[in-house]
């Protein structure tokens, strides 16, 4: 624990004031001082905020070897626990000769975990990321077992799919599986089924052996090409990783359009080469445009899956939903979009 404690103390002492350090660790200033003085042990939550696997001697080389030749990296954001059916389906999907796995757990804000995993993924040379949530059942190539886990009657051609192979086969940079919210009246988790009764009814009759373009699709089972993350950073530089090593905010819900337009408006207002009336008119135009885009793409209240897909689309990557890859979503029991 002394090594981990030293990591926390190094980070704590890097801040100009104790108040800033306490804000970073989300603790009181008194507790931060007690950590520094050694009168209180540092918390596991504090260690999770500063621990980097790259800092452990020998681990970076091991990870590089593990990633050699890998095509897909499975990203596992988890809060506390997972379900045995999720674990079993994941184990049967995994092929260590072709895949790597990354895990982040313990953060109550799921967007943080997704961002940290994306950051680690981009540090590798792997081409594809597959986000798999801890409350899902994925088709894993064994139809009888999958149907047993989900208490479903899907035909073997669909229940026996292999999730990774199926999603890769489409050749799309952003494509997710079909599943529903994990409660009795949960809707299929893609944009059009949320807002259109006819589309919802169509999804309830799944599986259909096709993929559909969609405004957004859930991140519970989502294949993402690395170019999606990179293009979001290019299109929205204020969401990108920075030179201080902070991870990007690909998934963080925020009014990114409004922030960008506000920054552009400020630059116009500070331009002495333009007359004041023109500066004001241009600034108002930019802010109004940002407000309109924000209402359409980035208004607060959207989930991190919606925010991510909308940013991806704005950056040139059309999201798709695979209507034939039906996943179970675990709540009181395993919910399927085609089974009440």
List keywords for this structure.
about 350 residues; alpha/beta; Spore Coat Polysaccharide Biosynthesis Protein SpsA, Chain A; 3 domains; seven-stranded mixed beta sheet; three-stranded antiparallel beta sheet; 16 helices; about 15% strand; globular
The strands making up the biggest β-sheet line up spatially as 2-1-3-7-5-8-6
Q: What is the CATH third-level topology name of the largest domain?
A: Spore Coat Polysaccharide Biosynthesis Protein SpsA, Chain A
Individual helix count: 16
Q: What letter string, H or E per element, gives the SSE order?
A: HHHHHEHEHEEHHHEHHEEHHHHEEE
What's the β-strand tally? 10
What separation lies between the terminal Cα atoms? 49 Å
Radius of gyration: 23 Å
Share of helix, binned: 40-55%
Find the CATH superfamily of the largest domain: Spore Coat Polysaccharide Biosynthesis Protein SpsA, Chain A
What number of domains?
3
Overall morphology: globular
Beta-strand percentage? 5-15%
The CATH architecture name of the largest domain reads Alpha-Beta Complex
């Amino acid at each position: 624990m002394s090594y981990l404690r030293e990591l926390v103390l190094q980070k704590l002492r890097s801040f100009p004031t104790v108040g800033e350090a306490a804000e970073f660790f989300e603790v009181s200033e008194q507790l931060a001082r007690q950590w520094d003085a050694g009168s209180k042990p540092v918390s596991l939550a504090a260690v999770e905020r500063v621990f980097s696997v790259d800092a452990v001697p020998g681990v970076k080389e091991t990870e590089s070897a593990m990633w050699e030749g890998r095509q897909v990296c499975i990203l596992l954001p988890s809060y506390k626990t997972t379900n045995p059916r999720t674990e079993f389906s994941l184990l049967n999907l995994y092929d260590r000769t072709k895949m790597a796995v990354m895990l982040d757990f313990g953060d109550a804000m799921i967007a943080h975990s997704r961002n940290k995993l994306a950051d680690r993924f981009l540090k590798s040379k792997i081409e594809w990321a597959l986000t798999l949530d801890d409350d899902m059942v994925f088709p894993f190539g064994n139809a009888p077992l999958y149907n047993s886990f989900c208490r479903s009657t899907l035909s073997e051609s669909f229940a026996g799919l292999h999730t990774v192979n199926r999603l890769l086969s489409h050749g799309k940079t952003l494509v997710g599986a079909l599943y529903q919210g994990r409660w009795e009246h949960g809707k299929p988790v893609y944009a059009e089924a949320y807002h259109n009764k006819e589309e919802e009814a169509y999804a309830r009759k799944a599986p259909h052996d096709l993929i559909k373009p969609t405004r957004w699709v859930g991140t519970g089972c989502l294949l993402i090409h690395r170019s999606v993350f990179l293009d979001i950073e290019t299109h929205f530089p204020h969401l990108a990783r920075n030179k201080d090593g902070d991870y990007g905010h690909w998934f963080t819900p925020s009014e990114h359009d409004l922030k960008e337009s506000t920054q552009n408006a400020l630059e116009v207002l500070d331009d002495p080469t333009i007359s004041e009336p023109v500066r004001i008119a241009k600034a108002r135009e930019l802010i109004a445009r940002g407000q309109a885009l924000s209402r359409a793409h980035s208004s607060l209240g959207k989930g991190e899956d919606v925010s991510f897909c909308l940013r991806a689309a704005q950056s040139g990557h059309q999201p798709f939903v695979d209507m034939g890859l039906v996943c179970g979503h675990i709540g009181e029991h395993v919910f399927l979009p085609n089974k009440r």
